[in-house]
């Protein structure tokens, strides 16, 4: 049974909804009447706020999206943290849902003319029109309980939250912004890894972002890395694991290699709870696990502790 | 290096094997008939060199990948032996264990002390297992970092040799923080106060490569590849089939020429005709020249400036469009 529930993390990186649908139809899908399953879709939700129902992938509890939103997308029955996007995180964290987004003008392009089953430009166009997102990360500045902070947050529904040139450049400019305005920096990760369609350019974003964190560190400004479900590959092999504090939501799947790859390598089943936040905490890679409902206050407390 | 008949030949190298077989036949005939065949043999030997040149002149990206994995190709320890003197290998990460997929230590290059670090693959079946096929565990990356910090403390330049199909994707590697280990190395390498030169000598696969791959100068040997994922894995994920590795290798633009063209590496290191596996001495000599020149360019820089330029170099990598600002309001 567990086997069926295992998600193929890598296949989210194809940006191919058909694949995701196949892989996830039993599991992490919002179901909408008469519509195909998708993860959280900010755009769709806006269109039909009352028509959405969601089933908890963990305990099957069914609630309206509106109710779930009031619970900050945490299952009231089992505390499962649903996957949400940048819009939801910004609304949850910033006071009065007020914030200014930064660097929206930077968008991906198909510089390499990369073509797999589709070409990259076509994927970008399709996903942009489907999601209203411009890329897999958005950056915003605003107040969290009155403390000003820059937050960069990934959107998993944009090609699996993949790390490409745009995420790297936004990250880089966000760090510059923090240094210029003397602000703390927080990154909310949710990603399958590097964006393969940008080939070696995507790999180099690991070095690019780490180099910028080195400058942030020299400026003695705090960097908080919040890992959410799922965070894999290039993110965990760079800024995801480089926080002054590394923290995570409960039950999030976090790792370098995806579970499928590991299983194929060692030819054994993986133990229960492997690569979950709780497992990472136990092995010493997280400072703490934080419930989404306590996140906002915890972040503002931390900013106070860092600055006093 | 192995000599015929102990050489191994890739499928596209078979014409060379045929020429060697012809030479063998001639030698046997000469032996039997006592006729001097040295002229004909010499011609065939020249033909072998010409064939080596011809084959490498028109390789597909996938063949280039195969060449980077040639079983006779020299690995890190071979270059250390041929290029450097007074090598003292240093072991262990002081925490968990000694990872044999990652080697390193102090040595001298042109009489000056350097720290050399690299992935190491095994040279026979037993050693390949022991070296874990060049796939390091977290302790390998942590050992590499320990050696880099040691070099920094004593103000010695660092040279890294990259040759890995990827960081090891094992259960215990995850338990011990493979992601964190690589991330830490990348971060620390961006800020090392000493000169850092990285060379891709074989396979440059993803984070496992970049984990010892951030430096002031990045060199890439002629018959190597460097990108975000192996062509096989890329094929299986994006094409959902293991059969598209050739296409994936093309699409990924992973050759030294591509990477130099993109400005993602600084220099291509030439190899002996037909590839490094044909002549270890020549391969090492060519590599030594490139590394010495690169080191010359950066060793006298002010450390702060060098670090700043290193960070800036990577910060420039990437491609994107910028929309006019007024059209970017959130919907
Ligand atoms: Zn539930």
UniProtKB/TrEMBL annotation, chain A:
Binds 1 zinc ion per subunit. Pfam families: Carboxyl_trans (PF01039), Zn_ribbon_ACC (PF17848). Residues 1-31 are annotated as: Disordered. Coiled coil: none annotated. Signal peptide: none annotated. It is found in: Cytoplasm. It catalyses: N(6)-carboxybiotinyl-L-lysyl-[protein] + acetyl-CoA = N(6)-biotinyl-L-lysyl-[protein] + malonyl-CoA. A zinc finger (C4-type) spans 56-78. One of its GO terms (biological process) is fatty acid biosynthetic process. Its cofactor is Zn(2+). Its EC number is 2.1.3.15. Zn(2+) binds at residues 56, 59, 75, 78. Keywords: ATP-binding, Cytoplasm, Fatty acid biosynthesis, Fatty acid metabolism, Lipid biosynthesis, Lipid metabolism, Metal-binding, Nucleotide-binding, Transferase, Zinc, Zinc-finger. Residues 52-308 form the CoA carboxyltransferase N-terminal domain. One of its GO terms (cellular component) is acetyl-CoA carboxylase complex. Component of the acetyl coenzyme A carboxylase (ACC) complex. Biotin carboxylase (BC) catalyzes the carboxylation of biotin on its carrier protein (BCCP) and then the CO(2) group is transferred by the transcarboxylase to acetyl-CoA to form malonyl-CoA. Acetyl-CoA carboxylase is a heterohexamer composed of biotin carboxyl carrier protein (AccB), biotin carboxylase (AccC) and two subunits each of ACCase subunit alpha (AccA) and ACCase subunit beta (AccD). PANTHER family: ACETYL-COENZYME A CARBOXYLASE CARBOXYL TRANSFERASE SUBUNIT BETA, CHLOROPLASTIC (PTHR42995:SF5). Belongs to the AccD/PCCB family. This is Acetyl-coenzyme A carboxylase carboxyl transferase subunit beta. It comes from Hydrotalea sandarakina. The lineage of its organism: Bacteria, Pseudomonadati, Bacteroidota, Chitinophagia, Chitinophagales.
Automatic annotation (TrEMBL), chain B:
GO terms for cellular component: acetyl-CoA carboxylase complex. It is an enzyme of class 2 (transferase). It catalyses: N(6)-carboxybiotinyl-L-lysyl-[protein] + acetyl-CoA = N(6)-biotinyl-L-lysyl-[protein] + malonyl-CoA. Pathway: Lipid metabolism; malonyl-CoA biosynthesis; malonyl-CoA from acetyl-CoA: step 1/1. Keywords: ATP-binding, Coiled coil, Cytoplasm, Fatty acid biosynthesis, Fatty acid metabolism, Lipid biosynthesis, Lipid metabolism, Nucleotide-binding, Transferase. InterPro entries: Acetyl_CoA_COase_a_su (IPR001095), ClpP/crotonase-like_dom_sf (IPR029045), COA_CT_C (IPR011763). It is found in: Cytoplasm. One of its GO terms (biological process) is fatty acid biosynthetic process. SUPFAM superfamilies: ClpP/crotonase. Residues 16-54 form a coiled coil. Residues 44-297 form the CoA carboxyltransferase C-terminal domain. Its EC number is 2.1.3.15. GO terms for molecular function: acetyl-CoA carboxylase activity; ATP binding; carboxyl- or carbamoyltransferase activity. Acetyl-CoA carboxylase is a heterohexamer composed of biotin carboxyl carrier protein (AccB), biotin carboxylase (AccC) and two subunits each of ACCase subunit alpha (AccA) and ACCase subunit beta (AccD). Component of the acetyl coenzyme A carboxylase (ACC) complex. First, biotin carboxylase catalyzes the carboxylation of biotin on its carrier protein (BCCP) and then the CO(2) group is transferred by the carboxyltransferase to acetyl-CoA to form malonyl-CoA. Belongs to the AccA family. This is Acetyl-coenzyme A carboxylase carboxyl transferase subunit alpha.
